[in-house]
Structures are given as structure tokens and as C-alpha cells.
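Comment thread on ticket #2218

A.B. wrote:
> Attaching the input chain for the structure job we discussed in standup.
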Amino acid sequence: MARVHSLNAGARTREWREVTPKMLREQIIPLDRPAVLKGLVKDWPIVRAAAESPEALGEYLRARDRGRPVRVMLGAPQIGGVYFFRDDLSGLNFENAHRPVHEVYAAILACRTQAAPPAIYTGAAALEDTVPALIAECPLTVLDKPARPRLWLGNAVTAATHYDNSDGINCIVAGRKRFTFFPPEQFCNLYVGPLELGPGGQPTSLVRVTAPDLERYPRYAEALAAAETAQVEPGDAIYIPNLWWHNVESLEAVNLSVNFWWFDAGEWAAEPFAALAHTLLAMDGLPESRREVWRKMFEHYAFRSEGEPVPYLPMERRGILGTLTAKIQEHMRVQVIRSLTKRMSPELGGAIRRLLWEARAQGEGR
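C.D. wrote:
> Ran it. Output below, let me know if you need it in another format.
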């Protein structure tokens, strides 16, 4: 069976040192490529606690944990720490539980010397809900825009290749991580699994980075040729642009990081993946000739492949193709909600529409 076990040794993500807000804003982000930010958070108190000992880090967390349970993904030792699909794609290879952060960390410490420990992982836990003291103690001063910090905690686990909807900076507190990155346009070579079933809630590749089966997934070789890797350690951070696919291997028995996500779009912006799901619902069952017409309409109106779609209309008469005022945004959301509720049960659809009309009436009454 043809397999590839490692990437080209020269395909390394670029490293940056002594990063400033100006450097991040004007040099790094415009490249639209991942970037290792060496030593960016080495002075965080929690990073110093982690460097002292795993037990010191545990005490640091326990003293600040407000005790609210977070989702924790628990996998049997047999999965080898890789959160993935079941072989028959009928589900995922782990179970979910809910525990406070300090209890999750205690469970990780308890099995850190085992040769084949269970997989323990919690991700994207909002600091404001779990360990709010860390918001002030872990400032990301290099970022000059709002971003909600989130906690990631686990043992030697792997988050299979996926993308994020937002830009992010992942700051390493404890443990080392290896990232494998694929450019956004490589998605068609990554053999993405069921879009609604990703282990972390995002679309995820079916190919295991550490042992890809190129007989079963031959186009993956093209993705590998375009890939790059990065390894980060405590005190480092890594910038991940949205839509860049990434596989994340935690290399130590104890790993903790804090991630900051943001999305440079208008506050009114809907989620692109939701738009994709809505499109799939709308196009299903249409004959090929009509799908082709709609494809051209999407390119013309949504993606503007030929430039401004309605230059012949005055700006104030372009409606949803012009300036998205609050009134127009509301109109667009109403149309989407009507579409989505049309095929729901009368009870559910009716309840949603009643709430919508009540909200509109309250808004008009103010």
C-alpha cells in the first residue's frame, strides 16, 4: 500500500520574532499565510507556572477556575489520541462529557505516565465562562482588535485536518504542538468527510496526516506538495488565517493553549458555511440546467466575478446589492428565515415566524 509518512523537510512555516502590533497588522496578516510568532507570550504568568512543573500549572488553574463544567472529549486508548470518524462514518470515535477545567486537568495529570492513556481533550472553552481571571493575566497586546480568548486543554491528542471560520492566534502555555497546514484551495484534494460530522464541529479531512493512504486518496499527494509544517513550544504563538486547513498534533502528555479568534467582516455578516448549507438545501432536486443558471447567478450577484452586478441602477436603488443598511439586513434575514421554516413542521415553523414578527413589531415600536 502506497503511503507517505512525512512532509518535505524544507516545507516550514515562516517564523517571526519580536512581533509588534504594527508588524502583525502590516506585514504578517496581509500575507494570508500561517506564521509562527516566537516567544510572543513567554512572559505570561501562566506560562511561567507551566514551566515550573505540571503540578504548579494545576494549582494555578484550580485557584482561578470558577467551576463551570466544559465539554470534554473522551476517547478510548485504542484511538491513539486521534479524534476522528468511525471506520464506517456512522459517527465519531469518542464520547462527550462535562467537567470543570481543573478536573479535566487533574484527569490528564493522573494518566500522564501511562503508556496508552485515554484521550482527554477540551477545546474552545471561553475564558469568561471558565477561568475569567486569565483574561487579564493573558493579554494579547499584539492584537489591536477585539477577540474572545478560549482555552484548549488535552493530553497527547490530535485534531484532524480542518479549517476555522475565523482568523486566530493560538498561544502555547504548556506542551509542544506540531501543525500541518494546507492552503485553502487544496480542500478538493483533502477528501473531506461528511460536512455535518467533523470531530470538532468543522468539516474534516478523512486522511490521516501521519500515515496517508495514497492508493485510497491519490489526490492527497497534491495537497502534501503544497503543505507546510510548524512546531511550537511554550511561550510561542501561531497565527492561522481563516480557511487554512490544519492538522494539530499535541506532542506532550500535558498540553494547554489559549486561542484568540476574530473575523474581519461587518458585524452583520452571516456565516459562510451556513450559506453553503442553505444553498445545498435550495439546489437539491433541481435539474442540471437550472443549477447551472443559479451557479451563474451566484457568480454574478454574490461573487461578482464580472465586477459590479448592477452598475445601471442608482446606488440608492440597488437594495440588497447595494449598501446593507440595517433595514435591508433585516429584510434579508427575514427572507432566509422564511425559506428555512417553509419545510419545517407547522408547529415549529409557525413558532419561529411568530417570534420573528414579534421582534419586528417591537423594533418598529421603538
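A.B. wrote:
> Thanks. Noting for the ticket: The first strand starts at residue 15 and ends at 17.
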